[in-house]
Design a protein that fits this description.
Blueprint lengths: L4 E6 L6 H7 L6 E6 L6 H5 L5 E4 L5 H10 L5 E6 L2 E3 L1 H13 L4 E10 L2 E3 L9 E6 L3 E4 L5 E4 L5 E13 L2 H21 L6 H18 L6 H26 L3
Parallel strand pairs: 1-2, 1-4, 2-3, 6-11
Antiparallel strand pairs: 4-8, 5-11, 6-7, 6-8, 9-10
Helix pairs in contact: 5-7, 6-7
C-alpha cells in the first residue's frame, strides 16, 4: 500500500473546503492544509476533519505549495486546490495506485463548473493536470498557473476520472479573478522584458475569443460558453493593457 499525503492550500475557502476534504476520505493517509490566515470559517471547517492545519503568510502560489509539501508525512503527494473534488471514478483510480503500491507520477483531467454549468469546451477541458508526485524530485515553479518541475526523468500515467473544479459562482467573482491574475501576469511579462504593441493589444483578444469560442467549440457550452470566452478575451486585453501601463504609467 502506497502511503499518500494530500496537500491543499487555502484562503477564505469556506464554500469549498468541506466538499474537497470529503472527496479524499479513504485515500489520504495524511492531510495537510496550509492556510494564509483566512478571515472566514475555513479554519473552523478544517478542524472538524483529521488534518494538519498550518497558517503562514502568503508567499505566492509556488512557494506556498512547496512549503506545504514539506509538511507532509509522506513523500508521495496528491496536490489539490480547495475548490477541487475527486470524482468517484478518479478516486477509484487513485485507490488502485495506492493498493498496488505503484510509484508513478500521475495526471488527470479537470472538469470545471462555471456558475452551475459544466464547461466541456472553450479550451477548458480536458485541462490535464499533473498532481500526484514524489516531492523529493519535484518543485512547483511559476508565479501564475504554476507548474511542477522534476529533477529526474519521470513517466506520466493518465488516471481515469475527472477532478471536478468548482471555479466561479458568480460573474463578479470571475471578473475579480481576471483582474487579479492579469496583474500578476503583466508583472511577470515585464520581469521577462516582454512588451505589448498596440496591435497586440487589439488583435490578441480577438484571436483568443475566436480560438476558444469557434475552434475550441465554446459555442457548444451555450450561454455559459459565450461568457467564458468573452471574459477570457477581456482578460487577454487587460493583461497587455496593464503591461503597457507598467512601461508608460498613466
Amino acid at each position: 500500500m502506497l502511503p499518500l499525503s494530500v496537500v491543499i492550500i487555502t484562503f477564505n475557502e469556506e464554500k469549498n473546503i468541506a466538499r474537497c476534504l470529503d472527496s479524499i476520505q479513504g485515500i489520504a493517509d495524511d492531510i495537510v492544509v496550509v492556510d494564509s490566515f483566512s478571515t472566514d470559517k475555513t479554519e473552523e471547517i478544517c478542524k472538524k476533519y483529521k488534518v494538519n492545519f498550518v497558517q503562514c503568510k502568503w508567499q505566492g502560489y509556488s512557494l506556498t505549495k512547496n512549503f506545504a509539501n514539506q509538511l507532509a508525512k509522506n513523500d508521495w503527494i496528491l496536490s489539490l486546490d480547495a475548490d477541487e473534488v475527486l470524482s468517484d471514478e478518479l478516486k477509484q483510480s487513485v485507490l488502485k495506485v495506492k493498493k498496488e503500491g505503484l510509484l508513478i507520477t500521475a495526471k488527470f483531467n479537470r472538469l470545471t463548473n462555471y456558475c452551475g454549468h459544466w464547461i466541456k469546451h472553450c479550451g477548458w477541458y480536458p485541462d490535464v493536470k499533473v498532481r500526484m508526485f514524489d516531492r523529493r524530485i519535484t518543485l512547483w515553479e511559476g508565479t501564475i498557473h504554476e507548474e511542477l518541475k522534476f529533477s529526474e526523468d519521470i513517466s506520466l500515467v493518465h488516471l481515469a476520472g475527472d477532478c471536478l473544479h468548482y471555479s466561479y459562482y458568480t460573474l463578479e467573482q470571475h471578473y475579480k479573478q481576471a483582474d487579479k491574475f492579469t496583474s500578476i501576469a503583466a508583472q511577470d511579462l515585464f520581469s521577462q522584458g516582454k512588451k505589448a504593441s498596440v496591435l497586440k493589444l487589439i488583435v490578441s483578444p480577438i484571436i483568443k475569443f475566436l480560438r476558444d469560442y469557434i475552434f475550441n467549440l465554446g459555442f457548444l457550452d451555450g450561454s455559459a460558453g459565450f461568457t467564458v470566452c468573452k471574459i477570457s478575451a477581456y482578460a487577454t486585453f487587460l493583461k497587455y493593457k496593464k503591461l503597457r501601463n507598467i512601461y508608460k504609467p498613466s
